[in-house]
TrEMBL record:
<dbReference type="InterPro" id="IPR027417">
    <property type="entry name" value="P-loop_NTPase"/>
</dbReference>
<dbReference type="Pfam" id="PF00005">
    <property type="entry name" value="ABC_tran"/>
</dbReference>
<dbReference type="InterPro" id="IPR003593">
    <property type="entry name" value="AAA+_ATPase"/>
</dbReference>
<feature type="domain" description="ABC transporter">
    <location>
        <begin position="9"/>
        <end position="258"/>
    </location>
</feature>
<dbReference type="InterPro" id="IPR003439">
    <property type="entry name" value="ABC_transporter-like_ATP-bd"/>
</dbReference>
<protein>
    <submittedName>
        <fullName>Peptide/nickel transport system ATP-binding protein</fullName>
    </submittedName>
</protein>
<dbReference type="GO" id="GO:0005524">
    <property type="term" value="F:ATP binding"/>
</dbReference>
<keyword id="KW-0472">Membrane</keyword>
<keyword id="KW-0813">Transport</keyword>
<keyword id="KW-0547">Nucleotide-binding</keyword>
<keyword id="KW-1003">Cell membrane</keyword>
<comment type="similarity">
    <text>Belongs to the ABC transporter superfamily.</text>
</comment>
<keyword id="KW-0067">ATP-binding</keyword>
<dbReference type="InterPro" id="IPR050388">
    <property type="entry name" value="ABC_Ni/Peptide_Import"/>
</dbReference>
């Protein structure tokens, strides 16, 4: 059995800067974390640097961005020095990304089946027949009941929840060891969200891979992830096991927890999160 504490990704002291007309914006400051065979959540408010962190790992930041780090190691690959060609062979095949809205990730003029099969043909040089049968099996694996029919649908013909399950099957058919999911369920309603999360959860465990789950929803991350990285203004303020969140030390994390509504302990008023300028200091 694989060791669940294997480290898949190590990020040490990563910063991402964007030169703009009004000066340099530092989107991510001195961020360090590791990802093992686990679900790790990155949470923080809008603009805290979550998506920039995810994109920097994939080296998908805009060309003007300046990424610095002491170390960015993905398995045997040094992400700081890997060539663009190496990165192209890693993206999709070894590190996959699932975004909020599958509509923008799926090609509108190819059927669902064609685009999933294409991944297998491209990465593994499978024959079209092999690719078709693997695609049908993968669609079935994400609980799509009638894979033969869905194979021939175009992206505009599928619902949001089915679209996200199709995205998951497309990402996972290439057998990546790390998935970066950026708000993958934010556009889904609550019941469909639960189905998609449970499929993702099963697949992460079954394949013993790592998942970085980016979200602004602390409750969701607390129940879904094993560990949580809390970001504020581009910095990691705290990294904590999801089960220990109630004992979080940082005042920002405490503030987020206090601002959550609770069914068990209803409050007349929700607390307003007060920010301390000291959180911006190292
Ligand atoms: N291409 C860019 N040029 C300039 N600044 C950028 C660029 N991309 C992101 N930023 C800035 O970097 C900071 C972090 O943005 P990022 O999108 O990573 O935050 P986020 O936590 O993912 O927010 P959200 O939850 O809204 O997606 C923001 O201040 C943003 O304005």
């Amino acid at each position: 059995m694989a060791n669940t504490s294997d480290t898949i990704l190590t990020v040490e002291n990563m910063s991402v800067e964007f030169p703009t007309l009004s000066g340099v914006t530092t989107a991510v400051r001195d961020v360090s974390f590791t990802v093992g065979r686990e679900k790790i959540g990155i949470i923080g408010e809008s603009g805290s640097g979550k998506s920039t962190t995810g994109r920097a790992i994939m080296r998908l930041q805009p060309p003007q961005a300046i990424v610095k780090a002491n170390r960015m190691q993905f398995e045997d690959i040094d992400l700081l020095t890997a060539s663009e060609e190496e990165m192209r062979s890693i993206r999709g095949r070894r590190i996959a990304m699932i975004l909020q809205d599958p509509k923008y990730s799926l090609n509108p003029v190819m059927t669902v089946g064609e685009q999933i099969s294409e991944t297998v043909i491209l990465h593994e040089r499978a024959t079209s027949q092999e690719a078709r049968s693997r695609t049908l099996a993968m669609l079935e694996r994400v609980n799509i009941r009638d894979p033969e029919r869905v194979f021939d649908l175009y992206p505009h013909e599928v619902s949001g929840g089915m679209g996200q399950r199709i995205m998951i099957s497309m990402m996972l058919i290439a057998q990546p060891s790390l998935i970066i999911a950026d708000e993958p369920t934010s556009a889904l309603d609550v019941t469909v969200r639960q189905q998609v999360l449970s499929i993702l959860d099963d697949l992460v465990v079954e394949r013993n891979i790592g998942l970085i789950f980016i979200s602004h929803d602390l409750n969701l991350v607390r129940s879904f992830c094993d560990r949580v990285i809390i970001m504020y203004a581009g910095r990691v303020v705290e990294t904590i096991a999801a089960a220990d969140l109630d004992q979080a030390q940082h005042p920002y994390t405490r503030g987020l927890l206090n601002a959550l509504p609770s069914l068990d302990h209803p409050k007349d008023r929700l607390e307003v999160l007060r920010r301390d300028p000291a959180w911006l200091e190292n």
